Every structure is written in C-alpha cells, then in structure tokens.
Amino acid sequence: xxxxxxxxxxxxxxxxxxxxxxxxxxxxxxxxxxxxxxxxxxxxxxxxxxxxxxxxxxxxxxxxxxxxxxxxxxxxxxxxxxxxxxxxxxxxxxxxxxxxxxxxxxxxxxxxxxxxxxxxxxxxxxxxxxxxxxxxxxxxxxxxxxxxxxxxxxxxxxxxxxxxxxxxxxxxxxxxxxxxxxxxxxxxxxxxxxxxxxxxxxxxxxxxxxxxxxxxxxxxxxxxxxxxxxxxxxxxxxxxxxxxxxxxxxxxxxxxxxxxxxxxxxxxxxxxxxxxxxxxxxxxxxxxxxxxxxxxxxxxxxxxxxxxxxxxxxxxxxxxxxxxxxxxxxxxxxxxxxxxxxxxxxxxxxxxxxxxxxxxxxxxxxxxxxxxxxxxxxxxxxxxxxxxxxxxxxxxxxxxxxxxxxxxxxxxxxxxxxxxxxxxxxxxxxxxxxxxxxxxxxxxxxxxxxxx
Length: 452
Hints:
Elements: E1 9-10, E2 14-22, E3 26-33, E4 38-45, H1 53-72, E5 82-88, E6 91-96, E7 101-103, H2 104-111, H3 116-135, E8 138-139, E9 148-151, E10 156-158, E11 165-166, H4 187-190, H5 197-213, H6 223-232, H7 245-251, H8 262-275, E12 281-283, E13 289-291, H9 299-321, H10 328-339, H11 341-364, H12 375-408, H13 414-451
Antiparallel strand pairs: 1-2, 2-3, 3-4, 4-6, 5-6, 7-9, 8-11, 9-10, 12-13
Helix pairs in contact: 3-5, 3-8, 5-7, 9-12, 9-13, 10-11, 11-12, 11-13, 12-13
Organism: Nonomuraea mangrovi
Transmembrane segments: 300-321, 341-369, 376-398, 418-437
Binding site for ATP: 43
C-alpha cells in the first residue's frame, strides 16, 4: 500500500486534488471525476502498518458496509449521496457527493454557537434524515457535529455511515471494542444495547446542545470521565437554547423509552419553528455561514436588547459626567425632608430603587455566560455587574444634574428634580427592555417544568 498524494489517480478515474479532512479510519479528498468532468469527494481508507489481519478485515468490512448503507439512502436529500466504490491498491475508496461548505463542528469552532432559529432548522433537517434512515432499517450510531455538513445553499446533510448498522448486518467489532464517539453515544449503547434507533435521538440531543451552547455537555478530560458523565450525569442546564430547551432535554433522557420518537420530535420541532422567524443558513465557498437578513426585526429578539444597551450606555455616560463623587444632587435629595418628610422619603426611595434595579439587571446578565466557565467566574461577573450598575446610576444623578443645571439655569431644587425624573425614566426603559428580552426563556422554562 502506497501513500497517496494530490495529483494521483484512483481507480483509473478520480484525480485527487486536495485533502479535505482526516479521522481515525482515513482521509477525505476533493477529487476530479475524469470521466464525467465533475468534482467529487472521495474517502480513502487507511490501515496502519502492521495491523493484524483480523483488524484489517474488520475495517475493510466496515468500509463496505458504510457504502452499502449509505447507498440505500442515496435518494434522501438530507443524507450525503454515495456515487461509487472503487478498489485501488487492494483498498476500497468511497466516492460521494462533494459539499462546498463546512461541518457543524467547524462552524461552531470558527463562528460560535448557532442562533436558536438556525438550530431549529438544523434539528428539523437532521430528524428528517434520521427518520429516513430508520425507515430503511439503518441506525447511524455516530451522529455528532463533525458528521453534520452545512452546504453553500443552506442544506443540512448527515454523513459518515461508517459505524451505521442495518437490521440485517452482523456484528463487526471484537468483544470489548467500542466504535463511535463516547461523548455523543447513548447510555444504553455503553451498557451493551447496541443498534437501537433511540440511540440516534440521544446523539442528536447532544449535537443540538453543542450547536446552541457551544460546548459538548458530557466532554471531560479523560475517556473514562466522559463515559461516566454520559452514564451517570445530567447535562448542565442550557442557557441559550430558548424554545429548543424542552426538545433537547427530552432527547437527552437517559431512559430510551422516555425519549420522543422521530415523529414526535419532528412535531415538537415543527411547533417551535412555527413560532420563529424564518431563517436560512447560507455557506459561501470560504465556509462562512451567513443568515438571510429579515426585513423586519423581531421586537423581542433584537429591539429589546438594543434598547437596554442604549439605556445602560446613557446611564454610564451620565455617570462619567458625575465623577468623582455623587456631589450636591444627592444632598438635594436629603434636603427634601426639610420641606416635607413624606416627600423626602419618597424621593430617596425612588432614587435608591433606581440604583438597585440597574445593579440587579446588570448582575443578571452573568446567566448568559457559557456553562463551562464555572460557578466562581459566574458569581464574580454577577458581583461586578451589580457594582457597575449601582455605581453608574448613583453617579448618573449628579452628572445629569450638572448637565441640566448648567444648560437650563435651574435652581438647586430643580436641578435635583430634573435628573430624578430623567434617570427614573431611563431606568424603567432599561429594566423593561431587559425583562422583555429574557421573557421567552422564562416562559419556556415554566412550560418545561409543567410538562416534566
């Protein structure tokens, strides 16, 4: 067996152009079909030198099985199409559809987690592909972000059926040998119940969790710890999944009997999609993923956070103007008690409430940190947000008083009343916008608790 290089011709027909990726069992190349004059992807099976004959035979059988199972599904749009299998230098090469794009795993690493709208579209596409495979008697057994492709036209494609089994297949692995990716593998598979369709649904749940959260829920530092996490631990509570939370939570149920079927999961995803603005994932040839911009901004998804950030920016700017200390404006608040005790108390309560409300809202945004940063970092960020919000608002009263007093030639009392009214309005806008932007997450959490 010789090492292949770009420019080599495989099977007398396919000229290798460039390596697209590699894994434990081989490499995938971009190649040119010299007969049809089109580009294809071609998977090269690699056998390590000195591999025992039993291991060699097993890998050859797995490659043959991958081609056979994928060929059964070639008519389905959501599954990578197999075009040909050729034998070269005694090894099978699988010729398949070329996808100009990137894997879901690559996209998350390069561009960050998917927005919920895109993740819903990915979920529907993958559930459709998984359902098609199961109807043909094929269980994939290795669904993960690296095996989900996003092409330049927005299609979502399931690939790599190297570990898939058909209902008529016999076991290929030796006793004690595990094939697959542990962190995406269903608990029942780790316990020995192999080939169950429900296992693909668990793997899909892990894939969707990682797509939206940006981290794999069961990945640990060692293989043993990862296996233990899949078997014994629950996934960390998701922070970004929004309306997808209930579906992902059910897919990640340790008991396969309690997971939804493909049809039930599709119905759940369809209901969610019906509530979301339509989005399409586009992938350019440089693999950058772009959404089609909506002509109308969703009021909660975009407008509320923007209004909140604008309000915080105003408070921060006024706070800077009020440095180095709150100064005379707060002294004027205290003097209100000299005129009217009840009015003085009301003014101080309003001013202090403004300070505390902004501090709490800024602190609450620590909940949007990635789940893997840890409780200590989250607590520190929360405290920092509280201090910043309270401080900025406290200083903002004096800054607004100075600006308005100088601009409008106000008296001492008027220069306290005006900033109190202005800051109170800004605070109410900020708190209302923050509440609106988080309202869908709370509603989904309540709905999930009611159903569970």
